[in-house]
Design brief:
The chain folds into two domains: 40 residues, no CATH class; 140 residues, Jelly Rolls. It starts with a strand and ends in an 8-residue tail after the last helix. 24% of the residues lie in helices and 28% in strands. By secondary structure, the chain is α+β, with helices and mostly antiparallel strands. The strands form three sheets. It has a five-stranded antiparallel beta sheet. It is built from five helices and ten strands; from the N terminus they run ββααααββββββββα.
Length: 197
């Protein structure tokens, strides 16, 4: 325990508590006791309810891209990006990679096909989220694509930040210029060893 000292009210506080208070100074200025602050910090739960997911799916259905997201992270610069993405079956997801980060995916509503490709565009692995797989982790730099299998489906994604749009070099050349209908039809049937003609 840190060295002790008396404050103005005659109460004993540790140096550790003072450091903690300084770290969260804005709440302390608002007149919260350390006990109230600690309790509030423990109860600031971020939630995505079933109603939230349904609303997000509704937004995706109205979006020209047929996608909508709800971020749990506060800023696009956050070191870990955490978001729910509603994806309709006809949305276009080009095969791509994230050179700087792994990516974790899990289905919150509906089913998703996740394909991982080798450098030549051959399917290396296939997973069915919401069917026989609960979570996948795509390695940093791994080429991949995701297909929404159901209307109203929502996937949850976690990866390193800060957010960076996918650059042209990180979209697979064999997927460029293809339509959503063409890619999605192939994603639905592609198996390990297959390549898009």
């Amino acid at each position: 325990m840190g060295a002790e000292r008396d404050d103005d009210a005659g109460k004993t506080k540790t140096v550790q508590e003072e450091r903690h208070k300084a770290r969260f100074y804005p709440l302390w200025l608002a007149g919260k006791s350390m006990r109230e602050f600690r309790l509030q910090r423990r109860t600031n739960l971020k939630k995505l309810t079933s109603a939230d997911l349904a609303a997000l799916a509704g937004q995706a259905q109205q979006s020209p891209r047929l996608r909508a997201n709800s971020n749990l992270h506060a800023e696009l610069t956050d070191p870990i990006q955490r978001l729910a993405i509603a994806m309709e079956p006809d949305t276009l997801i080009l095969p791509h990679r994230h050179p700087h980060t792994w990516e974790v995916l899990t289905a919150l509503r509906g089913r998703f096909t996740v394909l991982v490709f080798d450098e030549a565009g051959r399917v290396a692995e296939r997973a069915e989220l919401g069917v026989d797989t609960s979570v996948v982790e795509i390695p940093a730099g791994g080429w991949h694509a995701v297909l929404s299998r159901d209307v109203g489906a929502v996937i949850f994604e976690v990866k390193h930040g800060p957010y960076a749009p996918i650059g042209d070099a990180d979209v697979a050349a064999w997927g460029k210029g293809r339509t959503a209908a063409e890619l999605n039809a192939w994603y639905a049937e592609a198996r390990p060893g297959d390549t898009l003609a």
